[in-house]
Amino acid sequence: MKEKRALHRFAITLMFLYLFMPLIATFLYSIATDWYDTVLPKGLTLSWYVKLFQDVRFVAALGRTLFACSVAVGLNIAVMVVSLFIVSLYLPKLERFLQAFAMLPYAIPGVIGAIGLIKVYSSGPLAISGTVWLLIGAYFVVILPYTYQGTRNSMRTVDLPQLVSAAELLGASKPKAFFKVVLPNILPGIMVSALLSFSVLFGEFVLTNLLVGGYYETVQIYLMRRMRESGHLSSAVVISYYLFVFCLSWIALKLGQNFKNGNFDNLRGKKYELPHYR
Asked: Given this structure, which CATH class describes domain 52-268?
């Protein structure tokens, strides 16, 4: 029995080493002074990271990426939460159509979607091709499946119709029940969906490159250009990008675990109870 466990651990360790070896090599190259004809780098330095974060173009590209992703995620969450709230309470028969609509981005490849958007919005009254607004609209569509699933699961977990009915029995109107009762209870699930969506958008390259290219330089476009100039600097960009996405994913995972276990006290500060409105 012990031999089997040891064999399993050894196999798992080898698998993780195989998966993380490219990332480890990229990190070593990002801190190497010179690494061409030796097994290991000849020297180590953080000058590439210093140069990266002192580059005005990188900081500007990071700011553009954060702006586009934040606006798209914020708008998507607002629209999806309100839509699911209305459909769940008043139009439950339309939920399957809303689900089918939200899952459509899974069936549309990024290249085909980008080309279609360029053709539609390159002329006419709404000629926004090559602008950040078209990119935000494309981002909005891309993350529909993620925000829909997370928000719907949150509303089903709290039993939305029963929760609203209980709030109305205590004297709350529908809008007040939504903002004071429903929203605080589904907030952890919304936060998980938002963080996961943000991570997905932060790594999106195909849509960004085809829709805006050099007109709106994001981190992905900046990385592509830096790859042609310096391998050390591009490796530093990759590691920084990976750490950022890893932090977002880790936060989303922890929030998801708290949401699954019902431990919301540390997220809202205190346990939420139905208030008396009379």
From this structure: mainly alpha
Sequence ranges of the chain with CATH classification 1.10.3720.10: 52-268
Q: Is 133 exposed, middle or buried (0-12, 13-18, 19+ CB in 10 A)?
A: middle
pLDDT of residue 72: 94
CA distance 84 to 152: 7
- Using CA atoms, how far apart are residues 8 and 14, in angstroms rounded to an integer? 10
72, 49, 23: which is closest to 202 by C-alpha? 72
**Structure confidence at residue 144 (pLDDT):** 92
Helices and strands of the chain, counted as H and E runs: 15, 0
Q: How far apart are CA 37 and CA 138, in angstroms?
A: 44
Per-residue pLDDT of 73-114, as tens digits, reads: 999 999 999 999 999 888 888 888 988 888 888 888 878 888
b/e burial code for range 39-50 (CB count within 10 A of at least 16 → b): eeeeeeeeebbe
Closest CA to 46 of 226, 240, 267: 240
**Cβ contacts of 232 within 8 Å, gap of 6 or more:** 29, 30, 32, 48
Token pair recorded at residue 99: 């689900």
144, 104 in Cβ contact below 8 A? yes
Tokens of 210: 């085809």
Q: Pull the structure tokens for residue 9.
A: 């651990």
53-75 confidence digits (pLDDT tens)? 888 888 898 899 999 999 999 99
On whether the CB atoms of residues 121 and 127 are closer than 8 A, the answer is: yes
232: exposed, middle or buried (Cβ count in 10 Å: 0-12, 13-18, 19+): buried
pLDDT value at 140 more than 90: yes
Residue at token pair 């089918």 = 100
